[in-house]
Each structure stands twice: as C-alpha cells, then as structure tokens.
Amino acid sequence: MTNKLIIFDTTLRDGEQSPGASMTKDEKIRIARVLEKMKVDVIEAGFAIASEGDFEAVQAVANIVQNSVICSLARALDKDIDRAGEALKGANASRIHTFIATSNIHMKMKLQMTPDQVVGQAVRAVKRANRYTDNIEFSPEDAGRSDEDFLCYIIEAVIKAGATTINIPDTVGYNIPHQFGATIKSLIERIPNSDKAIFSAHCHNDLGLAVANSLSAVLNGARQVECTINGLGERAGNTSLEELVMAVRTRQDIFDCDTNIDTMHILSASRLASSVTGFIIQPNKAIVGANAFAHEAGIHQDGVLKHRETYEIMRAEDVGWNANKLVLGKHSGRNAFKVRLAKLGVEFNDNASLNDAFRRFKELADKKHEIFDEDLQALVSETQTESYDEAIKLVSLKVCTETNEKNTATVVLFINDKKKTATANTSGAVDATFSAINSLASIKINLQLYSVSNVTQGTDALGEVNVRLEYNGRIVNGQGVDTDIITASAKAYVHGLNKVLTVTNKAHPQI
Ligand code: KIV
Ligand code: ZN
User: Fold this and answer.
1) Fewer C-beta neighbours within 10 Å, C or N terminus of the chain?
2) Are 6-277 and 390-502 equal in CATH topology?
3) Strands 371-372 and 326-328, how do they pair?
4) Cα of 307 to ligand 2 centre, how many Å?
C-alpha cells in the first residue's frame, strides 16, 4: 500500500454547491492558483455541463494550472462526459469524475432505474470517459447508504471498464467513523480487482463527522480524500482540507501515509475562500479560526512561554499564521510589490492589472502606515478585475452622519458608461448608501447577508465587507475593501450587482 495520501480538492465544485457560494470564473482561477501553490494533487474545477460559465471555468483552470490534475464532474451520461472531456482538453493532466446513485432509495425514487440498469450506465460512462483520459474516477453516489454487496458488484464492473479511482461518498453525512472505515476496508478486501484502483473518501458533515469519517477511511486503506477549503460544501459542508491535512501530518505516529500539501499556504487559501464566498470563518474553527492558536488562560500562556509543546500540538507558523510581518511601506517600489505578491501566490494577467493594484497600494500606503500581507491580499482580491465588463462602476460616495439625525448618502455611479447621481436619506449610513445605489441600478435586490470584518488589527485597518444578494432566485456574493467601511460597503454592493447582471443559471449535478 502506498504511503502517499492524495488530496482531491472540490472547493470549486462541491464547495460551490453551498447555498450562496457561487463563484465567478475569475474567482475560481484565483482559488485554483492557491490550491496549486499548496500542492493539491487533484483540483475538481467544476461540473462542466452545468452552465456555460461552469464550462468556461473548468476550461480556464485546466489551461492555467500546470502542476495539479484538473478534474470535471460528469453524471454517467454521454453528454456530460463529452462536455467534461471538451472542457479539460487544455489540461496538462486531466481526470473525469463520473457518478451515479447506488442506494436503493436513490435508484428507486430519484433515478427510477433497476440496479442492473445503473451498473450498465456506470460502465458505459467509464468507457466513454476513456476516450478523453485514462484517469477516471467513479463515485457510487450515496454509497454511505448503499447495499454493500451491490457496491462490490458495481465497483468491480467499473474498475474492469477502466476506472482508476473509486470514490466512496457519504452523500448525506449519515455514517459514523468506525462504520465508514469498516466499509472501506471491506470493499477493498472483497472486490477482486480493488488493487487496480485507489480508494477515496468523500464525506459530508451533516452530523459533524466528515473529517472523522475521512480519517477512519484513511486508517482503513483509502489513499485519496476529497475535501474543501474551510469545509465548504452542500448543506453542512464537506471534509475540511486544513483539518484533515493537519490531523494526518500531526499524528504521523498513527497514520502510515502523508500528503504532499505545503501547509504554509493553508491560511491564505482559507482567507481567500472565505472572502470570495462571504462565508465567515468562526473564531474557534480548528487550524484557521482567529482563536485556533490563541491561549487565553494564564496557566496556558505561562506553559506555552516556558515550553511551547505544553499546550500546542502544532506550530501556528506551519499553516501560515504569524506571516503578517510588516512587508511594504509608502516608499516601496513596483518591483518589491510584485515580488512580495508572487510570494503570496498572486500573479497578474497583464501589466495593466499590476499597475492598477500598485496604484491602489500607494493610495493605501498614504492612509495606513503599516502594510501587512493580509492587506496586500485583500487589496489585490479587489483589483484582480473580472474578465467581464462591469456594467456598474462606483465613481464616488459622500456620506453625512450625525447623531440622532437621518444619514444622507450621495452616490455617483457609471452605469453602462453613463454617469448618474442619487441621494438617499435613511436611518443608517450603509442603508442610505445601498438605497441610493438601488435607485440608480433599478433592479429589485434582496440583501441576504451583510458583514464587516477587519483585515488586520487597529482602527486604521482595512475593513472588508461581504454582501450576499438574491435576485430572481439567484444568489451572488460581493466583496469590497477600504479603510472606510462605508466605502467598502458600497464597493461590495456594486461588486454583487455586477455579478447579478452577469452570472447565468446553472444546473445542479445531483438533481
Ligand atoms: O456527495 C456526493 O455524493 C457527491 C458526488 C457527486 C461525489 O458530491
Ligand atoms: Zn458531495
């Protein structure tokens, strides 16, 4: 058995299935670049047939990423497999991940197919995928509630047809660690050709057990785990990459395998995924939460100062904490700026976007003396412009607030290159700003979430605002950063509106 544990990241596919976490192509590219830097083995870039946007995102990631295998999801249908194969054409190394449900309840109620029909369709899909790549993954959806004899039968057949990875999904997060591990072990032992494939775990977190179930699978022979940054994913989410990777790395006394992940990039990947999706990281979240390495009790602090390992089982620096050194200042040049960003995994598509980011950096340096890595990341997040033309641009904002008085916001926007101005007068500065923007944009938006967080410490820190907007049943996220939080709010709102105007509907893979 190999001692390499393959990390298959599905932030861009299953992660994106979290309600409200839809991402644009450019956002997916940014996340994919960080995943590549982190040395993720396989990146599931999307579900190519879901929409034109999904197809383009898989294609773009496949063309850009060089060092990870790029994968697209496909139902066990010819048209899905062909679309995935087409999207992956430009990849250095590609994989097609095809799936069909195998639990009695799914076969009967959802697919309305007999078990034999399901096996036939699965085998056909794997053979078709073979036209495009020899790296084929098969998932029996809802395996966690499927009959084990049937799983053995279908898995043997798909391996024979050419599947090289067998992924066992606990689609509804129903399994318990010892039981899920036993299933993996039993499948590997019982299926005669199991040695021809790598077994993988794909766990959902409905009972809070996704990481535990995945670890149990690894202890029982799985050599791939499917996970997402910050545990994003359908409903309660998927196995969290950072927790899984650090558990295996920290407990090498227990696991006889390890991943290739460069853990130094974990924190920046987590922050990027959080900022793109608007899913805030809870402070007590393991590994990446603000309190994950903070010791409050005096006795703990004393212990850590005397000998770190009294209360710490991992080094915060190893996952990217404490990297927020003062890096650049007012007098730093364009080259130093570019080199520092390259170290953070940020590259620019062209000189114009580098120049734009550098101009904003200089503006920020005028307002804020100390500029940290986090500031740079937030700044470029905003300046890495979307490849679509933004219909709405914020030109200026003037806000007047006074205790016990209504607040007035005057907003100037470019809408389709026409300059327009509106003023609103309401009880709050943010509310007045959004009302003024709404009156100019003339679309009825439902604001589902508004949150503000500080990028670094201090009252001169950059404020990052996330908004979640709903329009005609479609949900998008918008982000904005600025040292002024009302301006950051306006930027976030305009960002979200532009997405509403461009993002197209997409199909859900599991419906
Ligand atoms: O949860 C699930 O079953 C999935 C499959 C498509 C692998 O996401
Ligand atoms: Zn899933």
Assistant:
1) C
2) no
3) antiparallel
4) 42
Nearest-angstrom CA–CA distance, 45 and 234:
16
Amino acid at residue number 267? L
Which pTM does this prediction carry?
A: 0.88
- Report which residue type is found at 304: V
CATH says 390-502 is which class?
alpha beta
Q: Over 60: is that where the pLDDT of 324 sits? A: no
pLDDT digits (tens, 9 = 90+) for 400-455: 999 889 999 999 999 998 999 999 999 899 999 999 999 999 888 999 999 998 88
The preferred substitution site among 17, 75, 165, 204 for testing ligand 1, maximizing ligand atoms within 8 Å of CB, is 204
The CB-based long-range contact list for 60-65 (8 Å cut-off, 24+ gap) reads 60/25, 60/28, 60/29, 61/12, 61/28, 61/29, 61/32, 62/87, 62/88, 62/89, 62/90, 62/91, 62/94, 63/90, 63/91, 64/29, 64/32, 64/33, 65/32, 65/33, 65/35, 65/36, 65/91, 65/92
Nearest CA residue ID for atom 8, ligand 1: 14
Mean pLDDT of 22-42: 94
Question: Which of 171, 172, 199, 205 is the best mutation target for the ligand 1 pocket, counting ligand atoms within 8 Å of the beta carbon and taking the most?
Answer: 171
- Nearest atom within ligand 1 for CA of residue 510: 6
| Burial of residue 389 (number of CB atoms within 10 Å: 0-12, 13-18, 19+) | exposed
Tokens of 210: 């996704």
Q: Which value, to the nearest 10 degrees, does the dihedral of the CA atoms of residues 454, 456, 462, 468 take?
A: -40
Pairing of strands 136-141, 165-170: parallel
pLDDT at 384: 61
Residues 319, 308 contacting (CB under 8 angstroms): no
Give me the residue label for tokens 């009880």: 427
Delimit the domains of the chain by residue range. Answer: 6-277, 292-320, 325-385, 390-502
pLDDT digits (tens, 9 = 90+) for 168-219: 999 999 999 999 999 999 999 999 999 999 999 999 999 999 999 999 999 9
